């Protein structure tokens, strides 16, 4: 989707962190604090150059190191301070965390299938997607409310948290949040202020087609 250049009003850019070793292994990170790979740092530097061109007014980020390190690359170019907030962390997924995709299917197949059907599932005994949105979306809105007219906020977070936040801000029923699709590492989505609320202007932008590694992490 495109339309960012013609957008008026405030904008929210939701930017996923760079690549980690667990992404490559398709290992569920959740709230586990995993660092970026060298490739991940390179992705963050490249994406930061593109996002700096949007002249953001504020940056807020998850305090997990993969998101915080990604945010630092943009802060270095824009000279903006980064506000860190634990409410922007990825979904806590209990016993799923640290398992590969195949291990989750083998050990929690029914739970995984129910989640993919859109049922409210506490993956691994962790958070519901609606609970993630309950903590993350208000933080995003609070920072957006502080923007100047036509200002831009960059939110550096995680795939699952970004998807649930977008779903909540667009007013979509949680059953349909999966339909938004995931973000590749260091790609972003853009919400713009419309007459009836927030509108999705771009989704998974910033790269030629890349596989989505580790959808919720």
From TrEMBL:
<protein>
    <submittedName>
        <fullName>Histidine phosphatase family protein</fullName>
    </submittedName>
</protein>
<dbReference type="Pfam" id="PF00300">
    <property type="entry name" value="His_Phos_1"/>
</dbReference>
<feature type="active site" description="Tele-phosphohistidine intermediate">
    <location>
        <position position="17"/>
    </location>
</feature>
<feature type="binding site">
    <location>
        <begin position="16"/>
        <end position="23"/>
    </location>
    <ligand>
        <name>substrate</name>
    </ligand>
</feature>
<feature type="active site" description="Proton donor/acceptor">
    <location>
        <position position="90"/>
    </location>
</feature>
<dbReference type="InterPro" id="IPR013078">
    <property type="entry name" value="His_Pase_superF_clade-1"/>
</dbReference>
<dbReference type="GO" id="GO:0016791">
    <property type="term" value="F:phosphatase activity"/>
</dbReference>
<dbReference type="InterPro" id="IPR001345">
    <property type="entry name" value="PG/BPGM_mutase_AS"/>
</dbReference>
<dbReference type="GO" id="GO:0005737">
    <property type="term" value="C:cytoplasm"/>
</dbReference>
<dbReference type="InterPro" id="IPR050275">
    <property type="entry name" value="PGM_Phosphatase"/>
</dbReference>
<feature type="binding site">
    <location>
        <position position="66"/>
    </location>
    <ligand>
        <name>substrate</name>
    </ligand>
</feature>
<dbReference type="InterPro" id="IPR029033">
    <property type="entry name" value="His_PPase_superfam"/>
</dbReference>
């Amino acid at each position: 989707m495109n339309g960012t250049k013609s957008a008026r009003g405030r904008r929210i850019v939701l930017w996923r962190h760079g690549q980690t070793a667990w992404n490559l292994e398709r290992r569920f990170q959740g709230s586990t604090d995993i660092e970026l790979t060298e490739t991940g740092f390179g992705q963050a530097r490249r994406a930061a150059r593109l996002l700096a061109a949007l002249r953001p007014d504020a940056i807020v980020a998850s305090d997990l190191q993969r998101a915080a390190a990604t945010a630092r690359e943009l802060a270095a170019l824009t000279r903006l301070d980064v506000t860190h907030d634990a409410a922007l962390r990825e979904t806590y997924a209990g016993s799923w965390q640290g398992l590969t995709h195949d291990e989750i299917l083998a050990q929690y197949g029914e739970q995984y299938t129910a989640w993919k059907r859109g049922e409210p599932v506490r993956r691994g005994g962790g958070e519901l997607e609606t609970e993630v949105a309950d903590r993350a979306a208000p933080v995003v809105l609070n920072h957006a409310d502080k923007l100047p007219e036509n200002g831009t906020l960059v939110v550096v977070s995680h795939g699952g948290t970004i998807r649930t936040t977008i779903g909540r801000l667009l007013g979509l029923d949680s059953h349909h949040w999966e339909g938004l699709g995931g973000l590749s590492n260091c790609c972003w989505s853009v919400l713009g202020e419309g007459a009836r609320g927030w509108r999705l202007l771009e989704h998974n932008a910033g790269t030629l087609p890349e596989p989505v590694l580790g959808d919720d992490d």
